[in-house]
Amino acid sequence: MLRGFYTAASGMYAQQRKTDLLTNNMANINTPGFKEDTSTIRAFPEMLLQRIEAGKAKSETVGPINTGVYMQETLPRFIQGDLRQTDIGTDLALTDLEGTPVFFIVEENGQTKYTRNGRFTLDAEGLLTTTEGFSVLDVNGNQIRLNSDRFKVTSNGIIEENGAQVARLGIAAAENPEALIKEGNGLYRTENNGQLPNVDGTFSISQGFIEASNVDPTRAMADMLTAYRAFEANQKILQAYDRSMEKAVNEIGRVNG
């Protein structure tokens, strides 16, 4: 019976973590370039129970038993979000053309990071940055300095001012996006802070647009209700075990007395 407590509690904990994940997805519905997180829940490895009795040379197999479930991992879902027109010249949206996710290359505290959030701005020095102040890098890994926000960006990432090319956006591709580590502010990094390769021709950039979050609010709400009901079901099982234990302690103990 005590094992049943742990099994029900593990189910409650797994569903609580799933609810937290879904809540974060819902909170970022309006975050440009946000990729929703998905989770996988699996059972702990099964154990084989055996009964050993006095006087018997061999044990008798009772059968397998499981000790509960846990959330194995969370992974971003790299599905293209819808493009939303803003008519703001510093807003840029990436579109994957060949199925491989691509990212803007930015710099945070001297480290290379990657993002799908193309809501950029110009700082006081004329550097192209994210709204959080991280520098957007060109194809050579340099900061991009512009004279005004009246620049033009072609679909292949070339930045032009007064008809002349001044820079080319650095765009990186992730052949294995599940290996990227998700950080705050819409940033990603590689496991050992390595560099993703620059690409050309596998993407399209739309100026005056942003990529919307790929969270489906209807599905997220349905998943949240399912997780909540599963949590409640495990909670009721835990309460049933608690009542059984209370009865065993109070009534069986009194009869034996």
UniProtKB/TrEMBL annotation:
Every Flagellar basal body rod protein N-terminal domain range: 5-35
Subcellular location: Bacterial flagellum basal body
Pfam name, any one: Flg_bb_rod
Key words of the record: Bacterial flagellum, Cell projection, Cilium, Flagellum
SUPFAM superfamilies: Flagellar hook protein flgE
UniProt family annotation: Belongs to the flagella basal body rod proteins family.
UniProt name for this protein: Flagellar hook-basal body protein
Organism lineage string: Bacteria, Bacillati, Bacillota, Bacilli, Bacillales
